[in-house]
TrEMBL record:
Example of a GO biological process term: intracellular iron ion homeostasis
Chain positions recorded as Fe cation binding sites: 28
GO CC terms, sorted: cytoplasm
GO molecular-function term, one example from the UniProt record: ferric iron binding
Name of this chain's protein: Ferritin
UniProt source species: Panthera tigris altaica (Siberian tiger)
PANTHER family: FERRITIN, FERRITIN HEAVY POLYPEPTIDE-LIKE 17-RELATED
Amino acid sequence: MATAPFSQVRQNYHPQCEAAINSQINLELYASYVYLHSWGCLWRKQREWDWGGIKIKGC
């Protein structure tokens, strides 16, 4: 099954509605990145404690 090009699947939303939807999507993506980074840092801190103080950059 072939997928349609982007221009053929686009809907004709009102520009303000489309902007609001895009803003919400971007907010939720950002929140997921923050959550994943925080979880990764907490996991690394736990491993750091288990490994006797080995430091990991970025957290």
